[in-house]
Design a protein that fits this description.
The protein is of the alpha+beta class and 323 residues long. The protein is built from six helices and 14 strands. The chain starts with 38 loop residues before the first strand and ends with a strand.
Length: 323
């Protein structure tokens, strides 16, 4: 297996936009949004988007800091959970791309040791053996055939591609947030801060996000309470009431990813939506695999892209809606 995502693949390895991607699967008719239950109404406005700090990844296009304006919108308090996604699947019969491909990417420490070693020989991401392409892994069975989400129904759904997230969003009558909307919401009204709560990662020694602790990628101590995903509403929400905007799972956004579109088009500062075409879609927020020694993308301004057919154990989404 190889990676073509353009970033260190601890973040999110890629299927590479395979020409063998399964055909689109029809879904049931989308319901009309009659309630914004579980969502936060935001009035929008101007904010400082991006980052200029020493911690940024220049190649990802986090800089420069620029003033952006977004219109009023609503956004989910949490990432979409297994329980919510199950309701969608039960109503529509939808099959995710991971199911139709027959495999998905799983972090090696989440597999039994004997199977891990066997999979490393044939189904590891090239030179990055902590990512395994596990047969049978999908949202209901996140570590393969013998696993289950029965005890994780309140955790974010994972192993969902951008195409899957788009299908769910359309079924609910909502949509995926733009990168600008996502970042506006994640900042919770704070200006040019690294995290949704400020610039100190652990204020008063308190864990505020789910990331990797220990020696990456061989030893995760779980010091923050989790060695995989955490419940979608764990830790403190930001000032707008959103949970887990950094860490836990990367979240798909609507935009095509580009490291420099916002630099080449400085006039696009009101409700920006990124380039019109591309080969990767935007992801924001970092995940439980982010670690200082390898990838410190558990920050509001952090951004990466991946092919729309890609799905991993640390990748989910939340929805937005018009007001």
């Amino acid at each position: 297996m190889s990676d073509s995502s353009g970033c260190k693949p601890c973040c999110s390895p890629s299927r590479g936009g395979s020409a063998q991607s399964p055909a689109e699967h029809p879904t049931a008719a989308s319901p009309t949004v009659t309630s914004l239950e579980g969502m936060i109404r935001l009035e929008g406005g101007h904010f400082q988007m991006g980052s200029k700090g020493p911690e940024i990844w220049q190649a990802d296009g986090e800089a420069p800091v620029r003033q952006v304006e977004v219109s009023p919108f609503a956004i989910d308090r949490t990432a979409v959970t297994n329980e919510q996604f199950a309701a969608f699947v039960d109503a529509t019969g939808y099959k995710t791309e991971s199911e139709r491909f027959g495999w998905s990417f799983v972090f090696h420490l989440h597999m039994p040791k004997k199977r891990r070693e066997r999979l490393r020989k044939e189904r590891a991401v090239q030179d990055l053996e902590w990512w395994l392409a596990v047969p049978g892994a999908y949202w209901r069975k996140p570590e393969g055939d013998r696993s289950s989400v029965d005890e994780r129904m309140n955790h974010p759904v994972v192993h969902v591609s951008w195409n899957d997230a788009q299908a769910y969003s359309q079924w609910t009558g909502k949509r995926l947030p733009t990168e600008a909307e996502w970042e506006f919401a994640a900042r919770g009204g704070l200006e040019e801060q690294i995290y949704p709560w400020g610039n100190t990662f652990r204020p008063n020694g308190e864990w505020r996000a789910n990331i990797f602790q220990g020696r990456f990628p061989e030893n995760d101590t779980g010091a923050d309470g989790f060695k995989g995903t955490a419940p979608a509403d764990h830790y403190h929400p930001n000032a707008f009431g959103l949970y887990n905007c950094v860490g836990n799972v990367w979240e798909w956004c609507q935009d095509w990813f580009s490291p420099d579109h916002h630099v080449k088009h400085p006039e696009e500062r009101t409700n920006p939506t990124g380039p019109k075409t591309g080969d990767r879609r935007m992801q924001k927020g970092g995940s439980f695999l982010c670690h200082d020694s390898y990838c410190n993308r558990y920050r509001i301004a952090a951004r990466i892209g991946n092919t729309p057919d890609s799905a991993t154990a640390n990748l989910g989404f939340r929805c937005a809606a018009e007001l």
